[in-house]
Structures are given as structure tokens and as C-alpha cells.
Design a protein that fits this description.
By secondary structure, the protein is α+β, with helices and mostly antiparallel strands. Helix content is 14%, strand content 28%. It comes from Luteolibacter ambystomatis.
Length: 295
């Protein structure tokens, strides 16, 4: 079976998640930082929003720190993050709160425990417009998008990415990277033929490598966020260290999507999302709860 082409509408499935709580999926919660849990304005600006995300991530992903913000009553259940570029108002609509929420300065947090298909060393590969951060086994392992979710860096800035790639020196940025950014320099980026994010943010970023054992459960969180409004997109793939993959014409590997069930998105435009390997292994949802202190 050949590579699947990205950019489709996820096979007619809501790309932000399913309504069925029995879908074997991570639980997704929608937050609007522009209003409190009592529906009062917070006056949060885009700059404030980025700081809220950064403090949440760097302070241990404690979900109780978000309780003061509006939370959509509707939960969604996510088996993959494959959200090609679309209007940012699609997220409030997906969580059935479009009448209460304007489509900016929102965040979705997916949580669950996952089981890898085999014992191996892995790394997540992905990007978002605006923010994508992934934590695995209580360690943040990926942060890439227009805006960093772990540092004050603007990742759409080519000079910043040149520092991350190790091609330029900047002591202040290097200090931020060492302190909070999950990937060590030089950061690797995968670019794909016709992919619109190649120039904007360097393509997909390769996250920190981690080991996972078959049959073991690992806590996992995925954070996606839109800051100014307009359009939104998020993509998450997974790469196994030492595995052989077909190559895109650019030379980058055609990777499988990170997913918890076997269905695949509908093929679509390469400009919206890179090709993916449709035969890639499927992870499973674990049985552990992510409840407990600080959650």
C-alpha cells in the first residue's frame, strides 16, 4: 500500500475527536482563556495566552491551574491529531460551544495512557499553527508550531530556527533552549514536497527521543492551541529509531501518524499535510487514569 496523502477531512470524522467515550481514545478538554469559568471576561491578550500555555507546561501540566477558565461541557475522544489547516472556529464548533466562545485564545488538552506496538526508541514528529506540545511519560518531548509552548521563542522566525538548527549562535536563545525547550540543539526539521509550512516554520520538527516497552502503559498529553484566531492546524506523526521508511522527494521520511485505532484520514492536498505511511503500527489506549494530585 502506498503512502497516504495528507490534507483530507479525516474520513468524515470530526478531526478534534469523537463523541463516543468508548472509542478507545484520549480524553479531550476545551478551554477558552478569554473568559472565566463564570463566563466573565479575563482580558487575556494573545501575549498573555502564550504565557499561560508556557506556564502550564513548564509547571508540570497541572490541569487544576486551568479551572479558573471556561471549560466546554462537551468532551471529545481523540485517536490521532491530524488536523489540516482549517478555520479556527472549527474547534469551538467541534466541542459544541461555538455560541459561547470566539475562535481565538483557546486550548485543547488531550490526556490518556498509551501502549506502544513494540519495544523501541521513538520520537514524535509534528507541528501546529499555532501551538503543539506533547508530553510522554511525564516528560515534554515535542514543541513546534508558529509559537513555542515552552519558551518565549517565536518559531516562525527563521533566525530563531537557525539557532535551533545549530547554524547560528545566540546566547540568550541558547539559554532558553537549555532551560525549557524539550529538544536539544541541533533540532532536526523534516520538509516535504509542496508542504505550506516548510517556509513558514521549517516544516515538521523532530522531537526528543524516548524509549517505550511493548505492553507497558505510559501517560501522554497533547496540547494544541490557537492564539490570534483565523486558521488552525495540527499534525502529529511518530518515528521509530532504526526503522526504514519510504522517502518524500525532499528526502524526508514518510512517517506513520500517531494513532490509537486503525482508520486513516481521507487523502487530500500535500500543501495542507505531508504524506503519511498508511501501514504504520497502531498504538493502544491504556487503562490507567490520569487522575490524582495536581491533575
Amino acid at each position: 500500500m502506498g503512502p497516504g496523502i495528507g490534507g483530507g477531512a479525516s474520513g468524515g470524522v470530526n478531526p478534534f475527536g469523537l463523541l463516543d467515550p468508548n472509542a478507545g481514545a484520549m480524553i479531550g478538554t476545551f478551554y477558552d482563556m478569554k473568559q472565566t469559568d463564570k463566563r466573565q471576561s479575563t482580558d487575556v491578550t494573545p501575549a498573555d495566552m502564550v504565557k499561560i500555555v508556557r506556564e502550564f507546561v513548564n509547571d508540570g501540566w497541572r490541569e487544576n491551574s486551568l479551572r479558573k477558565y471556561y471549560q466546554a461541557p462537551q468532551k471529545l475522544y481523540q485517536t490521532r491529531v491530524f488536523i489540516p489547516k482549517m478555520s479556527a472556529d472549527a474547534a469551538p464548533a467541534a466541542f459544541k460551544c461555538e455560541k459561547e466562545v470566539q475562535p481565538s485564545r483557546w486550548m485543547v488538552l488531550y490526556r490518556g495512557s498509551v501502549i506502544p506496538p513494540k519495544t523501541a526508541r521513538y520520537r514524535f514528529v509534528g507541528a501546529a499553527d499555532d501551538i503543539l506540545v506533547v508530553r510522554f511519560n511525564r516528560k515534554t518531548v515535542l514543541d513546534h508550531g508558529w509559537t513555542s509552548g515552552t519558551t518565549p521563542m517565536t518559531l516562525s522566525n527563521e533566525d530563531t530556527r537557525a539557532v535551533l538548527r545549530g547554524e547560528k549562535e545566540n546566547r540568550d536563545l541558547e539559554k532558553e533552549i537549555r532551560r525549557d525547550y524539550p529538544m536539544k540543539r541541533p533540532v532536526t526539521y523534516y520538509q516535504y514536497e509542496g508542504f505550506a509550512w516548510n517556509d513558514a516554520i521549517g516544516g515538521l520538527a523532530v522531537g526528543a527521543e524516548f524509549e517505550a516497552n511493548a505492553g507497558s502503559e505510559y501517560e501522554m498529553e497533547i496540547l494544541i492551541s490557537e492564539v490570534p484566531g483565523g486558521s488552525f492546524g495540527a499534525l502529529l506523526y511518530v518515528e521509530e529509531n532504526g526503522a526504514t521508511y519510504q522517502k518524500d522527494p525532499t528526502g524526508s521520511p514518510i512517517l506513520p501518524l500517531f494513532r490509537l485505532e486503525g482508520s486513516l484520514p481521507t487523502p487530500g492536498s500535500k500543501s495542507a499535510a505531508p504524506s503519511f505511511d498508511p501501514g504504520g503500527p497502531v498504538w493502544k489506549l491504556g487503562k490507567k487514569s490520569l487522575g490524582g494530585p495536581g491533575i
